[in-house]
Structures are given as structure tokens and as C-alpha cells.
Amino acid sequence: MDTNEKRAWLRLARARRLSAAAAVRLLRDAELPEAVFASDYGTVAKREGAEVADEVRRLGRGAEDESVDRALAWLARHEDAFLLPFTSPLYPQALLQCDRPPIVLFARGNAGLLGRRTVAVIGSEHVDAESIATGVELGKALVARKVALIERTATPLELSVARAAPSGTILVLATGPDRVYPATALEEQRAVLASGGLLLAEAFPEEGVTPERIERRDAVYIAAADAVLLVAAETSSPEMRLARTAGEMGRSVFAVPGSIHSPYSKGPHRLIRNGATLAESAEDVLGDLKNLA
Fold first, then answer.
1. Cα 190 from Cα 185, distance rounded (Å)
2. How far apart are CA 213 and CA 217, in angstroms?
3. Helix axes 156-164, 129-144, angle to 10 degrees
4. Could you give phi then psi for residue 12, rounded to 5 degrees?
5. Integer Cα distance of 211 and 174 in angstroms
6. Ordered alpha helix ranges (H), the chain
7. How far apart are the first and last CA of the chain?
8. Which residue intervals of the chain bear CATH 3.40.50.450?
9. Under CATH, which architecture does the 111-290 domain have?
10. pLDDT averaged over the chain?
11. Measured by CB atoms within 10 angstroms of the end CB, which terminus of the chain is less buried, N or C?
């Protein structure tokens, strides 16, 4: 992908009123992303509405090129950095099921992980040491079988899993690809890059965390997973909501059983009662992944 094509994709990604579906229609007519910005204003307005036409014209005139130039500089600075437009064969196709699929993703690291089955190993914020150890054990076993772990940097359990199996981890960020959030995740991000893992970000370089970006990260994270494995969580935790969302999107949902006396077992137990698959080992997850088309 040459610089002009990258610039065009980055401009499209700055179009806040442009959905991926609308981008597909514009690209179908223009054939190349660069040509979208040369499209006839009236034609775009008739098909997509005046607001989209105004934004395409504004972006074509360079209205967002300061952030676009920063992104191009970041891509040029790192040999292992690359841009993933939604038309790329490497783009996680499951992401197209999102309400608003990212038009592009920034990536840095091992692109080969994008060809593997992915499992999100999750657990809530204040789980105990035993739950973290269980998550680490399961994560390492899955990576040993060539499954990629898709993780956030949101909870100690997820950070511990990424730290234990960095070579097989895809970290989805709530910031630009050059930022760390939370600051305590610096070690894990460095380990993932150094060990052959992958970072993915929707936000542009130099963009920090916001509540909206956390929400978007979680949407991308769950949509990109083939399966979700809940290790430990209270019933009211955000991780329970993520697991339910994954199920509603057609993802496989697994839950690890635990002590009836532990509040962190109540979330997994509820999922199991509601149809999630009980998981006591990585083999329980692997058997399901083999059956995916």
C-alpha cells in the first residue's frame, strides 16, 4: 500500500458520519480510496446524504490532515507497523458485525496472529490469585495449541494472561497505538511486541483514552473474538455484560466453574445455567473452535 492510498484510508477513517457500509458503497463506485474524494458532490449527497457529502469534501480538502500526517509518520517510524483497512484480507471479518466497524485499524507486531482462531480470556477487576492463576494456565495452554488470545489491558487477570503468553496475544487498545493505558500495562505491551504478539488500535497515534474509546475498544475486542472464556466475575461486572454480548453476537461462550462460596464464581455459574459451555481445561474450548467454519 503506497502513501497516497494510506492517506486516503486515514482520511476516510476520520469521517465521523461515514459508516463502513457507506464506505463500501463509495468505494464500489470510486474503486480506489483516493478516488472517493474526487467523487461528484451531488452524487454522494443523493446516495449518502448531504452530511456525508460535506464531510467527504471537507476531508478531501485536508481538514483532518494534521492527524493523518501524524499517523503516516508513526507507520513510517516502525518497521512492524501496518494499516488494516476493512477491505484487507487480514482484517478480522467478524468485526463487520459491529454496529460501527472500524474503517481502519492500526496494527503493530505479528500479522500472522490474525490468521488464527481467537479466544478472549476475561475476568473482573478484583478476582483472587487462584482465578488469575487459572486464567494464566488456560491462556498458555491455548497459545501452545496455536490459538491467539485477544485481550484488553482492563483487569489484572487479563494483564496476567498477556504477560504469561505474550507471543500469542493480540492486545486491543483504548488509545492510539503509541500510548499505554493504564500506565501499569507498559510491561505487558512491551512484552507482547518483543515476543511476537500484536497490538491493535482504532484510535489514531497520540490519541489518549476517553470513555467513548474504552467502549469502542470493548466492542472491537468482543467482535474480533471467536470465543469468550469467562474465568471469574461477579454477576454485575462489566465482564458479564461482555460475555452476554458475545453470546448475542453468535460467539462461543465458555465459563470456568468455581466454589459456590466465592462471589467471583457466581458470574460463570450464571452463564453456565443460561447455556454457556462449562470449561475445565483448554481442551473444552479447542473442541468447539475446531467445529467453526
1. 9
2. 6
3. 40
4. -60, -40
5. 9
6. 3-13, 20-30, 33-36, 41-48, 50-60, 65-77, 129-144, 156-164, 186-195, 211-223, 238-248, 263-273, 282-290
7. 30
8. 111-290
9. 3-Layer(aba) Sandwich (3.40)
10. 92
11. C
CB–CB of 201/92 below 8 Å? Answer: no
Give which of 240, 238, 125, 224 is closest to 171, Cα–Cα: 224
Residue 142 DSSP label = H
Residue type, 143: V
174 conformational bin, left if phi > 0, alpha if psi -120 to 50, beta if neither? alpha
Q: Which residues of 175-214 are buried (b: 16+ CB within 10 A; e: fewer)?
A: bbbbbbbeeebeebbebbbeeebbbbbbbbbebebeeebb
Residue with cell 491493535: 200
The pLDDT tens digits for 83-101 are 999 989 999 988 888 778 8
- Grid cell at residue 65: 490532515
Which of these, 206, 169, 201, lies nearest to 187 by C-alpha position? 169
Contact 219, 102 (CB under 8 A): no
The answer to whether residues 172 and 217 touch, using CB atoms and an 8 Å cutoff, is yes
What is the distance between the alpha carbons of residues 143 and 159, in angstroms, rounded to a whole number? Answer: 15
Cβ neighbours, 10 Å, residue 261: 7
DSSP string, 228-263: EEEEE--TTSHHHHHHHHHHHTT-EEEE----TT-H
Distances from the Cα of 36 to the Cα of 5, 19, 235, angstroms: 11, 14, 47
pLDDT tens digits along 55-85: 889 888 988 899 999 999 999 999 999 999 9
Q: What is the pLDDT of residue 293?
A: 55
Q: Which residues contact 157 (CB under 8 A, 6 or more apart)?
A: 121, 122, 123, 124, 127, 131, 132, 135, 231, 232
